[in-house]
Amino acid sequence: MNARESAVVVAGLSIGMLAACTNGDADTAPGPDAGVSESATTGAEADPEPVDPAELVADLEASVMADDEEGMSVASVEGELETVGGGKRPVTVKVRGIRPGVASTEVEFSVRSKGDSASLDTLALTDRAGSLYGVAVIDPEADERYEAFEDAGDSYYSTCSYKPKTLSGTPYYLTCLVAPLQGRPESVSLQIPDLPLIEDVPVTWSQE
Amino acid sequence: MLGDFSYPYFGRAEDPVVHGVVHGVRRVDGGTMLYYSLGEPTEGVGAGKTPVYSRDEWDPEHYGPRTVASVSVVDPDGLQAYRPFSADGEAVAVEAREIDAAPGRLVVAWAMLPEMPEGVTSVDVMMPRGSVVSDVPVEDGALEPVVDEPAPLLGEGWPTVPVPSDLAEVDPGVSILDLTRHVGDADGTVEVEESVEDVVVTLDADVLFDKSSFELSRSAVQEMDRVAADIAERGTGDVVITGHTDSDGSTSDNQVLSEQRARAVRDALQPASGDGVTFRVVGRGEDDPVATNATDEGQQENRRVTVEFTVEQEER
Questions:
Q1: B183 and A146 in contact (C-beta within 8 Å)?
Q2: Quick check: is A208 in a domain?
Q3: Chain A positions in Cβ-Cβ contact with residue B129 (cut-off 8 Å)
Q4: Gap between the Cα atoms of B96 and B68, Å rounded
Q5: Complex ipTM, two decimals?
Q6: How many domains does chain A have?
Q7: pLDDT tens across B62-103, in order?
Q8: End residue of a domain, out of A44, A65, A86
Q9: Would you call B176 an interface residue with chain A, using a CB distance cutoff of 8 Å?
């Protein structure tokens, strides 16, 4: 998930209201309030502030479409990635977050070419087709390493983003779901193939 | 928690970026509905605009070219992934030609996936190009109000859920993938690959043994304790221990060394592994390399001992 903080605040409210729309009358032709939940209506009764469904959708669309903000990274590294043909390209990686979930851990980072905005050739980043391969979260204190889930069969299905075909000066956002962290480490290391280990990356634990 | 996602539609940095929102993963008759929406801020999405689904994500064998099938739902706890149903070579999902929205607008899309076990209450959703929305709750019932549009604009209602008769020809086996979970120690000398049915622990022989020796080193003791505790906790049936070598030395010497090392690991594990399992020892010598023997790194990968055991199934 691209957890843009500003977007999530709006989207969290709006998505919840739209998704909770389970008790509408299916026989009723959709009007301007279609897609707004009973819970939203109930909420309006408790709250004198009226909710304009069209405005709600417009706010959600505006927040979701907003440009990603690279500035919220929690760690970064510079290195070189191999390109097809054996070349090397300098890149900057910014880690946007390592977020433990219910049964997995979400890793989000951006990669962009350093210095210029020229497109690059297909990056290695993996020695297998399709998805990123070899991304790992390492907890040095607990001596534990966590990697992505993969298909137990023959396919290349994994829980990492497809690798980028090209990079430019614009950040390219990538995610991986890795195995759930044991214990509650405050910081971990992130290993991305072909790049220096990124150490002391803070873990964003949800409030409980 | 539901959330948003984005991806450059064809995987190039210069491509228009498709943005979207996951609206729900809902249990319905015959399966699971995934509702999401897609849009693009400058061109919009659809024919003549930004495509939402690129050819390199096709799985033509099961999903054909017309449907938006590059979505899946992951149950990381149950180690399964659910892809859209496949019927007559097409995904039971929104068709790409039905997706159409002006710049900045979100259009609702959907896919029908197999039923998930009752105990699954939260999943991670993989959207096109592998973008992720994690910790999405699994809820009951279709979203309403329903409209006739297969892909309405957000706010106009929700698409119709396929009825069970539409799913008569589907093969859920095509759409359910068994996953493996990969963990290990920090420096990669112990790797654990876990599936629903079994666990395979791969131990770096250079950590367990001195060169050409079959006596366990002191540094191996801690790793043996960890593996034995795991077997005692959830192992059942046979525990198969297999020794492997690189190709240095004679084939017969390597065969003997692999058997001796496998027996040494068994002797270390057995006392602490409980009574619920039976050990079996195999030596494979240099016959099953996992990497090239032409490099030092490859040879090191090939010098290993694997411990494989079946795990007791948990009811969900």
A1: yes
A2: no
A3: 161-162
A4: 6
A5: 0.89
A6: 2
A7: 887 777 888 999 999 999 999 999 988 889 999 989 999 999
A8: A65
A9: no
